[in-house]
């Protein structure tokens, strides 16, 4: 799995990045990479690139929003990347916020989007799964709204047959 390979590479001091041409690049101490590790990196290149992108994005968000130093942000981002368990993409289950379905994480009784870092789905007490954007909608007391008097409207101009059109202004 790519997450384990990334952890092994980090333990050897190997730093992965994505270059300006969109290729996976690495910086490694002398002797840190053997042929076996290079082959594994090639075989899991796409998965490693996804993890590196998520790591960079998460570190930047934590650095900016959390006011942490880059080193502290990278430590937090690494913990976020190393710990979550991603679920396989499920038909019909995408994040209602960012519309991504490839980064759903099992988290706290539901599914959290690893892309926009918001709760996407929640399991209710009956075990059904519910979209979180529907849960967060504002509940309205319809009876209260219906019982409110309708404000009076003053018509400032009328359009009668044969007259030129004049604007209707409501004050």
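^ structure tokens above, recovered residues below v
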């Amino acid at each position: 799995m790519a997450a384990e390979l990334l952890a092994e590479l980090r333990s050897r001091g190997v730093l992965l990045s994505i270059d300006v041409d969109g290729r996976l690049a690495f910086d490694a101490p002398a002797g840190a990479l053997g042929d076996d590790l290079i082959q594994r990196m090639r075989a899991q290149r796409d998965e490693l690139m996804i993890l590196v992108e998520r790591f960079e994005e998460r570190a930047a968000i934590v650095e900016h929003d959390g006011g942490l130093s880059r080193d502290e942000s990278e430590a937090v981002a690494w913990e976020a990347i190393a710990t979550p368990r991603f679920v396989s993409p499920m038909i019909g289950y995408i994040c209602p916020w960012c519309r991504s379905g490839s980064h759903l994480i099992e988290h706290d009784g539901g599914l959290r989007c690893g892309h926009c870092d918001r709760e996407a789905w929640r399991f209710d007490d009956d075990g059904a799964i519910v979209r979180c954007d529907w849960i967060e909608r504002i509940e309205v007391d319809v009876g209260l709204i219906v019982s409110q008097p309708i404000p009076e409207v003053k018509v400032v101009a009328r359009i009668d047959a044969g007259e030129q059109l004049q604007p209707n202004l409501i004050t």
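Residues 2-82 form one domain.
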